[in-house]
Amino acid sequence: MVEQRLPPLNAVRAFDAAARLGSxxxxxxxxHVTQPAIGRHVKLLEDWLGxxxxxxxxxxxxxxxxxxxxxxxxxxxxxxxxxxxxxxxxRAAERWLRIMxxxxxxxxxxxxxxxxxxHVRPGLKFAIEPNSTFSEVDxxxxxxxxxxxxxxxxxxxxVSLICPRVFPICTPAYLASIEAxxxxxxxxxxxxxxxxxxxxxNLWFAANGLDIHLTSDLIYVNxxxxxxxxxxxxxxxxxxxxLVREELKAGTLVRVLEDQVQLESYRVLTPASExxxxxxxxIQWLKAELEADFPExxxxxx
Length: 302
Hints:
The protein is α+β, with helices and mostly antiparallel strands. It has helices at residues 9-21, 24-31, 35-49, 65-88, 103-110, 114-120, 172-177, 199-207, 223-231, 241-250, 277-293, and strands at residues 54-57, 60-63, 95-101, 124-130, 144-149, 157-160, 165-170, 237-240, 254-255, 261-262, 265-269. The protein has 2 domains: 9-88, Winged helix-like DNA-binding domain superfamily/Winged helix DNA-binding domain (Arc Repressor Mutant, subunit A, Orthogonal Bundle), CATH 1.10.10.10; 94-301, D-Maltodextrin-Binding Protein, domain 2 (3-Layer(aba) Sandwich). The protein has a 5-stranded mixed sheet with strand order 4-3-5-11-6, covered by helices on one side. It holds the Pfam family LysR_substrate.
């Protein structure tokens, strides 16, 4: 009997990550390897199969028809391997809660609470994956995700958490160095920090009744990066109260105006599978803590 040859499994894993995330960059982050390593693995698999799996674009990668067909099969096979491992693991095996989360929330609200949280739920360990671009959660890589966006943006959102107020912030020194800002329209004349092409600022201006449309020549990686630039005195950024409450208390950041609006919500995304007891517990803890910390940001409160 001729032994069936398996493809290089590390290459299969890299291909699966790139196919799910649509990007070598995101796949490298998910697997904790370099982006060139993902590219080499995919090229190795393409050579092994003798077909092209991806079309490369300026925005990432798209599966070819052959790639789509292959990914459907190997994704199912990888899920079977995961399930087989769960079935044979002893009951005393380590319990992990894998959380994909937008970076600002991960760094500024969730991470400072993790040590205390471990004592609340003994035996449960946490793996935090900051990710600013995800729109769904795959059971192979995460048990749940904490996203921040507009209503209707996430089709698989199961739990809405809070809708925090958004306002402009900067350092006290920066505010003292510029001409007085008395109303939202004055902000358009100043150095505004963007983590997109101007959409979030434009949304904030519109919510304040202003028809102002900005674009940006300099975009930062995510909102946490934009806030770090503001903290270094680089200009004025938009922030929600969840991300900068401690900095406002400490005085390292100040509000430029009292004008504030509710724009987007934090929400939980989960795979289609049923929640485990740990996922159920964590979601309830998360919702209760956020609503206690920010009662005026509760969904339905205006």
